[in-house]
Design a protein that fits this description.
Distance between the termini: 17 Å
Largest sheet: 3 strands, antiparallel
Mean pLDDT: 78
Number of strands: 5
Keywords: Membrane, Transmembrane, Transmembrane helix
Family: Belongs to the acetate uptake transporter (AceTr) (TC 2.A.96) family.
Subcellular location: Membrane
Radius of gyration: 26 Å
Pfam families: Gpr1_Fun34_YaaH
Order of helices and strands: EEEHEHHHHHHE
GO molecular function: acetate:proton symporter activity
Structural class: mainly alpha
Oligomer: single chain
Length: about 280
Amino acid sequence: MSTERASAVTFDMDGKPDGSGKDDVLVDADDTVFSSRTTILSMALPQGFSRQDLRSIKLPAPAPQFGNPSPLGLLGFALATMVGGAQKLGLDEEGGSFVSAVAMILGGVAQIIAGILCFYKNNTFSLTAFCGFGLHWFQAGLTLSLTLSGIYLPSSTYNGLAGVYYGLWTLFALVLTVATLRINKVMTFTLVHVVLVFAFDIGAQFQHWSERASGVFTVGATLGAVYLFAADLINELFGEPIIPLWPSEAHKDDFIAAKGYVPRVHYHKEATSSVVQ
C-alpha cells in the first residue's frame, strides 16, 4: 500500500503531529504504524535503490499489545481473601457455600486467567503468583464444596497433612515476598501478611486461636491487594503515578509515568512502509 504525504502523519514522542522529532512514528490515515522514520531513512540502501523504492518494502507486523491483567488478578485475590478471612474471624461460620463459590470463581478462576495473561506480558512474577494463589483458592473452594455436600469427609490424619500443606505455602509465599523487594513496598507489605496468614493456618489445624490470628492478617493482605488494584488501574489510565507504590531503587525508572500520548495502533499481518519526504 502506498501512502502519499497528504494521508500520512508523524507523531513525535510528545504525541504532537509535527513530525519534527528524530524518533517520529509514521502513521497512515487509518492509524496503522509502519515504522520509525529514523530507522527507514538510516537503512543501508543497495546501489541504484532510491528512497522512493522504500514504499514497496514490507515490514514485519508489530507485536500485539495486551492490556494489563494485574487488576483482575488483584480483584479476585482481594475479594477471596476478604471473604475467607471473615469466615476465620467468625463473621459467617455457617456460610460455607458462599465462601466456596467466591474462592473458586474469584479467588481461583479470576486469578488463573490473570496469571495466564501475564505470560503474554512477559511477567514471570505475576504469572507465578496469580496462577499459584489461584490454584490454591480453587482447591480450597473445591474441598469445602465436597465437604459440605458429604462427598468428601476429612480423615483422622487430615490436620497433620493440612499443616504440612500450609507449611509449604508459607515457604512459597516467603520466596515471593523476597522477590517483591525488587518491585515495590506495597507489594512487600501485602506478601508479608500473606506469609503470616499461611503460617497461622498451620497452627489453625491444631489450635482455634491460631485460626483467628490468621483471619486478622487477612485484613492486611486484603488492604494491600485493594491498594495495588487501585494503583495499577488508576495510574495506568491517568498516565502518571497518582497513587504511589514506593518502588524499589532497582525498578524506580519503570514507575516513571509516560509523558506523551501514543496513538492507538490497529495491527495488520502485513504493512507497507511509507516515508514522509
